[in-house]
Hints:
It is a single chain. The chain has twelve helices and ten strands. The longest helix has 20 residues. It has a four-stranded antiparallel β-sheet with strand order 1-2-7-4, with helices on both faces. It has a two-stranded parallel sheet with strand order 3-10. The chain has two domains: 154 residues, no CATH class; 106 residues, no CATH class. The protein is of the alpha+beta class.
Amino acid sequence: MDSKAEKYTQLIKTKAQRFGFQSCGISKADFLEEDARPLEKWLKNNFHGEMKYMENHFDKRLDPRLLVEGSQSVISLSYNYFPKNEISTLDNFKISKYAYAEDYHDVIKEILREMVTELQNEIGEFSFRVFVDSAPVLERSWARKSGIGWVGKNANLITKQSGSFYFLAEIICDLPLVSDYETTDHCGTCRKCIDACPTDAIVSDKVIDGSKCISYATIELKNEIPDSFKNKMEDWMFGCDICQDVCPWNRFSTPNLQNRFTPNDSLKNLRKSEWKELTQELFSEIFKKSPVKRTKFAGLKRNIKFLS
């Protein structure tokens, strides 16, 4: 690998740290050979439920060169979202920690674009696309390949130093860079996430039946929640953190430093009786810039009603 590639690689990693990313790893933009069969099997088993979009762009999910012409490198980044204070669950419905505040898609994309602008000022023009949980990109696979962490039994990416409460993002570009190595798996014989899941959504090591997952039922599902979820939701009205909360590696999680991830006061103060009376107006006010917008007012009301 030439010195220019080494220089650019170091520059990108230094810049990522300066822009607040927790980790930065690099992989060669290539076909994800080992992910093709598991993805095909997962879809065949209908583990994606009603997430029909998962069936689209199968080839693009496995080959970033089809997403960004001439791409040579996938830069994987992680961004901490672990909250300074968790929202009280006393007489309250629960919301996944990632959805406490501003929509991460917007926050992290802005940071990435600013970072790439700086990189282009220093390196010169290069072709790229940025992704934050968007487009057909197998984020965990690229993050695993780049050595950021390993895929745990709950199918989340886990890092020894910081657990799993972080977002993943990618820059796919035509810069030739120095690739990192995969890390080793440190789940061992631990089964805490599998045993804690109230709906048995973790069907085997690293395989999730999405159609059984509380996050799927409260966010992705557009129809009525099936009766099979009755009395198993444990008060989750949007998303679910159970498998992450019980993971021993998350004892190393530290509060994020991003002001835009500070929860809305109303979110902290409302209780069950008030959530049950939620109006469209209040929903729009509380979740104005939140990922909760995804489930829409009708979806959140449906979730609350199902829990009540």
